[in-house]
Amino acid sequence: MRKIVVAGLVASLALGLTSPATAAIIGGDQLALPGVQINLLAGADPAPTILARTWILADATTGQVLAAKKAHKARPPASTLKTLTSLTLLPKLALNGTFTATRKAANADGAKVGLEVGQVYTIEDLFYGLMLPSGNDAAIALAQANGGVKNTIDQMNAVAAQIQANDTHAMSPNGLDKPGQTSSAYDLALISRAALQRADFGTIVGAKRYRFPTKQSVGGGKHLIYNLNQLLTGDYRGVVGVKTGFTTQAGRTFVGAAKRKGHTLIFVGMGIKDSSEGAAKKALDWGFANLRKVKPIGTLVEPLTPLPTAVPTSSQASNLEQVAIPVEPTPLVTPTATSDPVAQQAIKQAALKVPATQAQAPSFWLAVIVVLIIGVALFAWNANRNRRRRRYRY
């Protein structure tokens, strides 16, 4: 009898040691294995060579993970964490609401959209400032509009837990390096998949440029800000977003997504040694070509509970630029502060795509109107003087 009890205890202990480990591998056991993981079927092309510390390629439509390397390895996420910021705050903040920029927000470190203290912005402005030029100042402003930075970080971590992004621990709303702040390629794919199910998020990350308010423009005008995502600005076929990232500790991080033939593929790379755009193109091209020629190595799990889908009092994105792109350069924007050479190059290329007509509004037309008014006044005064001269002469 004693032997049976001991055997039972040993079996229970063994189950206790093994079951949690298996359960902890969210999405499937193969995702925890070292090296590149891929299950090629007959006729499949060889796996793409992706120069990154960790990466994942997944079908957001079916939830299947097609290939990965150290998908659950926790690493600094850099600005790709802003996808979680957006996923958390879009259901909470009305896009047509307003926020007056604070000194704390305007003085944020790193890349900025250029908030000016005391200037009033719509929440929509701030989301575009967050996701296009990766404005850390916009991240702080949105967090303050949501009741404070700490409150927002707590909510971000709650959302991460809700969607089972268990490798993710947010310590900031902007992704700047912080001790203990991590995510993983798998988690960023989960976050981006959930976010792309929101139309408002898709519209924002799919925009190449946006007219952003500035005090410096005559008449309280706006200037163009640009999306740093070169996969998007380079017109990759089917691209839908989503986010770039770079810090000293994280290196280059990137989330890119494209949709073709009813399938949306998501690529996430962390610690990318190649260009972010180049790595994403290789992975996505391979994925679309071999979608039915591989056996999935895992799945993108569903949220534990449904995420909110409501859009609080949505606006009409009136500042979104929807214009053709000419060849002639007309630089209008001060480059966003960033140390990433790839991001700097993206800004330069975007500046070459500004419509020439933008250089004429609004200060150009204001000057034209002033000149016309002065000209008409001078003409009337001169005509009146000539009439008086003729009267006195005769």
From TrEMBL:
Name recorded for this polypeptide: Unannotated protein
Family per record: Belongs to the peptidase S11 family.
GO molecular function terms attached to this record: serine-type D-Ala-D-Ala carboxypeptidase activity
Regions crossing the membrane: 364-383
Keywords, ordered alphabetically: Cell shape, Cell wall biogenesis/degradation, Hydrolase, Membrane, Peptidoglycan synthesis, Signal, Transmembrane, Transmembrane helix
Biological process according to GO: cell wall organization; peptidoglycan biosynthetic process; proteolysis; regulation of cell shape
Species whose genome carries this gene: freshwater metagenome
UniProt keyword annotation of DNA repair present: no
InterPro entries according to UniProt: Beta-lactam/transpept-like (IPR012338), Peptidase_S11 (IPR018044), Peptidase_S11_N (IPR001967)
UniProt xrefs under Pfam families: Peptidase_S11 (PF00768)
Ranges where the Peptidase S11 D-alanyl-D-alanine carboxypeptidase A N-terminal domain occurs: 47-272
